[in-house]
Specification:
By secondary structure, this protein is mostly helical. It has helices spanning about 5, 10, 15-40, 45-50, 55-70, 70-85, 85-115, 120, 130-160, 165-220, 225-235, 240-245, 260-275, 280-285, 295-325, 325-330, 340-390, 395-420, 425-435. It starts with a helix and ends with a helix.
Length: about 425
């Protein structure tokens, strides 16, 4: 019998499934309405892929934050910090430092030399067809692993948030997320997707801020007391191995310093996070949605501040979950480490805060998968269909039509892939995508 089935009775008492579904439905309805309003009408290839370069640096920076702060950021990292302490926070540091590479080496060059996709840049002075084929394979591989991570997050959350368990329920939620994100892409293109990401970024950062302040208030706004609370709760764990980890929660080595292999793992992870960000196709394509290279730099500056602030908040949320929820409850919940942040929300504000966090978590997944889908479909239509298969001899209408068909196909692959990957750790799947990138 699986762990999910064993904890069904436990999950049923977390929050109100009706409230969680209602908040999620409201978000979907509002954002779909906005997408329809801002992105209605026939689109050229430029409008579909890059919104015609119509966004300011500030708007694009917020959208980049919305694109980058995925389910792994909110759920996976908070859980990693709750269970592994210092070593879990290393994910946050790696993700943040990576943006300096993007700012210094990538943003301006991408905007100056490209038009729609990363392959435009890499094939600028090289042979077009082989470079575009290679880059397209890479982009689709990265997007696939990243999509799996988001879909796994959707499947893992459903048991906790809706009070149900079993394969069918999780698969249904994954299918719903897939269908809605395809609608965003088909209806809104890049412009609609960008506004969804802006809204989601604001909601996610605001929710993380509220939860962090709430947690700190419980410990007299003393971060040392919060850390000690996490150590004390972990030390009181019923699991002897977990209790023994308590003394190492605030020092390096709980996960990445145990032996030489673990140390090599950490070096590998650091390289993947820092260099992988500069190769994430769905983030890089955002540099084309601004009119100039100066605005591209400005958008990265905004993104760094927003993403940096958020990752500092994950430290409080992670240790807060470790202190107030405890490793035993986290390990027993469906989704395990990925359930730490929602469980903390329930501990702090009951069903209402859990419902809000649930809605934002689903919104996070939706916005990121929409960005991944439009990037993948643009790569297939622009690089493979137009430049490789048709050798540049096609119309913009045909290219956009192929991109929309590709979005449907990618959505289907993401749904079925997510159904198989739903039991995997989200942070691991994202790290895999970064390693390929």
């Amino acid at each position: 019998m699986s762990m999910i089935n064993l904890v069904t009775a436990e999950t049923a008492k977390y929050g109100s499934p009706t409230l969680n579904i209602a908040i999620f439905a409201i978000f979907v309805a509002v954002t779909l309405g906005i997408v329809i309003k801002v992105a209605a009408g026939k689109k050229t290839a430029g409008e579909y892929y890059t919104a015609g370069g119509a966004f300011s640096g500030k708007q694009n920076g917020i959208a980049i934050a919305g694109d980058y702060l995925s389910a792994a950021s909110f759920l996976g990292i908070a859980g990693a910090i709750a269970l592994q302490g210092y070593d879990g926070f290393l994910y946050s540091i790696g993700f943040l430092v990576a943006w300096l590479v993007a700012l210094l080496l990538v943003a301006e060059l991408m905007r100056n030399t490209g038009r729609f996709t990363m392959a435009d840049v890499l094939s600028y002075r090289l042979r077009q067809r082989p470079v575009r084929i290679a880059v397209s394979c890479s982009v689709l591989a990265v997007s696939f692993f990243y999509l799996l991570a988001q879909m796994a997050g959707a499947g893992g959350l459903v048991s906790l948030l809706l009070g149900v368990s079993g394969e069918a329920a999780q698969n249904l939620v994954i299918a719903v997320v897939g269908v809605v994100m395809v609608l965003y892409v088909l209806i809104g293109g890049m412009k609609g997707t960008t506004w969804v990401q802006i809204i989601k970024a604001i909601l996610l950062i605001f929710a993380a801020f509220i939860m962090s302040v709430w947690v700190l208030a419980k410990y007299g706004f003393n971060i040392s007391s919060l850390f000690q609370g996490a150590v004390d709760t972990t030390a009181a764990s019923a699991n002897a191995k977990t209790a023994a980890n308590a003394e190492h929660l605030l020092t390096p080595g709980l996960k990445y310093g145990l032996n030489m292999t673990a140390k090599i793992d950490f070096i590998s992870l650091s390289l993947a996070l820092v260099l992988g960000t500069a190769g994430l196709p769905h983030v890089l394509q955002r540099f084309y949605t601004v009119p100039t290279s100066k605005q591209a730099r400005k958008s990265v500056e905004w993104a760094i501040w927003l993403i940096g602030g958020f990752y500092l908040l994950t430290l409080t949320i992670g240790f807060g979950a470790g202190a107030l929820v405890g490793p035993d409850k986290i390990a027993a919940a469906p989704g395990k480490a990925n359930a730490a942040a929602p469980l903390l929300a329930y501990e702090l504000g009951g069903s209402v805060l859990l419902g809000v966090v649930a809605g934002i978590a689903f919104a996070t997944i939706l916005a990121v998968v929409a960005g991944l889908t439009i990037t993948s479909s643009a790569t297939f239509a622009h690089d493979l269909y137009k430049e490789v298969f048709k050798k540049g001899k096609t119309t913009q209408e045909a290219e956009v039509r192929v991109a929309r068909i590709a979005a449907l196909a990618i959505g289907a692959v993401a749904i079925f892939g997510g159904m198989f990957a739903k039991s995997q750790n989200i942070a691991f799947l994202v790290a895999l995508a970064f390693a390929v990138a």
